[in-house]
Amino acid sequence: MQVSERIKDALEAQADQGSLKWLNEKIKKLEEDKSVRDLFMSYSLLASKFDKGSKLQIQNSDSEALIFLTSHNANLLEVARIYLLIKVLEIDRDFYGPKVANIIQVADITELETFLKFLDLLPYPEMFRFTAVEALRTNISVIFDAITLNNPYPAKYFNDQQWNQMYLKAAFMERDLSKIPSVDERANADLARIISDYAHERWAASRKIDPMFWRPVSGFLNPVLLRDMEHLIDSEDALENKAGALCCYHSGKEEAMQILNRKSDLKQQIEEGKLTWKNLKN
């Protein structure tokens, strides 16, 4: 069963039946008579048809899409918006793809937030990478968080430069770095260098750094980063000690393990599974 059919079934279980009938009629019309104007109008009118105060509720579903929607507390309006976009892209990718991009360019904050949060559910999601990258330019936290936190899209579709830009800005905006998926998988040498440079600037200004920020450097501990690890291990800040210990342990480098040996208690906690990146701040 297609993702759209799963979402349609979920909407049918909760949404107002008159609103759902209206939406399905609009989709049928968009299939029979492709119209940019009708797509724009239908998308705009969804807010008057579906309740944003009601969360999608699904129990024991085997659909990854529905699990993703419920885990992100999607409301019925958000689900209806995503359903409409999925359907038109299924109908005609070449015609409706650019029109969906146009809708998002003029979307208000809540519409853009919905699009970015659930972008990975759309057919041909790589078509909208430009929009996703553009969202990194914003200083509106709800928009930045929508593409950055708890969102698998950047790890799948951003190149290293775009990923690094996102990660650095998330740190700069003091977002919760533990909510960025696939940090280990997308670690790269350039990002490790950027993290070190940024840390040196912060230290020079006597400013703190989120200890989670260091997570991607483990596989790239060159002489400069090894000195950074010494700085962390020797710090009077317990969280910096833990971050340095995790980086050294997971690096697999002998020089790093020698630094880690200065904190034998932390080394033991890591070996016993009691200290991980997931519980670093607990």
Explain this structure.
- The protein starts with a helix and ends in an 11-residue tail after the last helix.
- 35% of the residues are buried.
- The chain is 62% helix and 0% strand.
- It is elongated, with a radius of gyration of 23 Å.
- The chain folds into two domains: 3-163, no CATH class; 189-272.
- It is an all-alpha fold and 282 residues long.
- Helix 1 packs antiparallel against helix 5 (76-91) and helix 3 packs antiparallel against helix 5 (76-91).
Would you kindly provide a brief summary of this structure?
With 282 residues, the chain is mainly alpha-helical.
Q: How many DSSP E strands?
A: 0
pLDDT under 50 segments (min length 5)?
none
Radius of gyration: 23 Å
Distance between the termini: 42 Å
> The biggest beta sheet, please?
none
What is the structural class? mainly alpha
InterPro entries: EboA_dom
Fold topology:
Elements lengths: L2 H12 L2 H16 L3 H14 L14 H8 L4 H16 L1 H13 L3 H9 L11 H6 L6 H8 L4 H5 L2 H13 L16 H16 L18 H11 L4 H14 L2 H7 L3 H8 L11
Task: From the structure above, extract its key features.
282 residues, mainly alpha, 2 domains, elongated, EboA_dom
